[in-house]
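Q: Fold this one first, please.
A: Sequence and structure below.
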Amino acid sequence: MKITNVIAILSGEGVFVKVETDEDIAGYGEGTSFTPRAVIGMIEELKPYLIGEDATRIEHLWQMCFRTLFARGGPVTGSAIAAIDIALWDIKGKALGVPVYQLLGGLARDKVRVYGPVAGKTAEEIAGKAKKLADRGVTAIRYRAFHDWDALHLHDHKRAVMQQVEYTEAIRAAVGEDVDLILECHGRYDPDYAVMLAKIVEKYRPLYLEDPIRHENPQAYRRLRPFTSIPLATGERSHNKFEFRELVESGLVDYLRPDVCWCGGITEMRKIAAMAETHYINLVPHNNWGPVGTAASMHVSLAFSNVALLELPASASDPKDLNTDVASPYPVVENGYALPLLGPGLGVEFSEAAALARPPKPGTTPKLKALDGSVRDW
């Protein structure tokens, strides 16, 4: 089955790829990134390496895309290869008439526990949203504070710590002890402030702290790890197995959070999961919420034995609230667990017309500064 074309699709819903073959079987992938036009450009750069190749040789084509580049790695390459790779798995599943998770060894679990994120500009608002999620059967909730400061382009470590403590206390009181809390720190804190936060919130028994410090230097977790018993999680901004190696081998984190659309696709995420398994580290896959990426995230979460949770939009319990016209169906969620997609390949139908009908919106991430005007992390 030869690849005849690779088409990059830029949409307000994300960056998508359509891979066409000479057997009239097409696959779709997603590589959403914070630099979508750069990812589109990288997909075009990789296209000549793919045309005329056998679409069923997924591992070979992954190596081709990664190793033929002299400058490799990083978010742009990781996202572009991910989009292509996911599309190839979609093709192979369709050709064989089975879901992708069957190609990965079958179901490692019957369903995937999911967590829902909530946001709010006050403790009362975010606690109310968390309570609604818990009442719908969601058993794990992720949140962060300082949404109100993003609009002001401000981040102050101490103020953010105190607000996260306030939100944590309010959410725990609202949802009770049976719901797991995940503190999202977004990689904003310097290590000493991450220690401050961890010490104060430990009494509220969070499931883990997510990205408490910046991601560039994994060894910086040595400044946090000895001071808290709260599990630590990171990895959404790592883009291939080589970038995950130090996190795994250091033993400094408890959960890895690769995103299948950013870390090189299903092929690479399978290797990251296997590497983590040898160190008894579980995965909580990051999900960029894109419609194809969500489907791909479901398949790897069903097939890999060491997946603990999957990020899924909070409204997953109410499909009518979701925009499913780009790729459908959306995973069904019952009592806090997502059920397998049943169709061949990724199990979703992709609408190019719907994707193109939503043009990308220009914009930037918040340009955060400290009180003294110096740059802070978003």
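Q: Good. Now the second chain.
A: Here it is, same layout.
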Amino acid sequence: MKVLVVDDSRNDRKVIRYNFEWHGCHVVEAANGKQGLEVAAAEVPDLIISDCLMPVMDGFRFLHELKKFKELNAIPFIFYSAIYTGSREAELAAALGATAFLEKPMRPDELWDEVGRLLAAELASEREAQAPPMHEEEFLRDYSQVVATRLEEKVRELTEENESLLRLNGELERRVVERTSQLESANRDLEMFSYSVSHDLRAPLRHLEGFSQALAEEYAAKLNTIGNDYLERIRRSSRRMADMLDAILELSRSVRGKLAREDVDLSALAREVAGQLARSQPERKVDLRVAEGMAARGDARLLKVVLEHLVGNAWKFTQPQEHAVVEIFPTEWEGHSAFAVRDNGVGFDMAYAEKLFSPFQRMHGQDEFPGRGIGLAIVKRIVSRHGGKVKIEAEVGRGSTVTFTV
């Protein structure tokens, strides 16, 4: 038996083809009604199985046109559809002369059995003549009613989905308002904390530093060596606390305020930062290499802060090297444009790399390399605000490389 399968779904055609070929049938295919007419005229199949909803020409128009050909109008025609499955569609299919109207999906064995039963019933009826083709006006009337009904149902479905989306959007907007209010409240609390740090907490520190200095100036001779050592430790600790307060304020400023995005010449910024470092320590001979043409879109003020910390760290940690090298250059990271600051400084053990992006985490002692331990934490926050990422790679005694995207 030769079977013509007409369906715009390649997968559905494949399933039917394998099923019927397994039972010994010869199967030909078409992707729409227009192709189906051409294949039917050329192959004259013993059975046609067709979808309803297809581009170019749908199944109803295909069957209507097929019935106009005397040599083709007696071919058993079975609709197999997942969309047009209502009673109106079934009535139109019967009026057009379809053998049956089956609903997708069916298991391959169920489809084969059902088609066999339908063909057996068709042969048993022993109809003497086929019904004449439906008149064009009658077909267009019934076909239009089917399409209009299906469109009305689709409009109702879309209306219900739209109303559901509107409800969801309303809920999302309400949640956004709530989260925005919570964020604004958190920012206000942060501003109050920053004010407290910059004013209230500094007052007792100033008193501590002032009185400890007065004590050192007026009573140092009356204290023994141990007493003077204790006093110096108090003064160092108060200065360290003041530095930490400054660092907290700087960290707070890095995550506040609106980003002013613009095209930024990173090469020019890097040269400016490197020049400032060179002027601050003219006695040092550092080979500063800044690549040309580096550009990014972001907040120029904050990106300069990033370079100040990264290049500053590279400058600091190359101090023991006789021939210090600091490079700023473009690179790639996970398929995206990135920028890197590399040095040949002291480096560090990578087992502790992640902790460096947390505030006040350091790899080296204060006496060896002075600092507040806040630079990389600030870098990470600024880069994150730009939607980027940052990583650091290093080897003990062989320097480090910080890579970031924005």
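Q: Anything worth noting on the second one?
A: The two ends are 66 Å apart (CA to CA).
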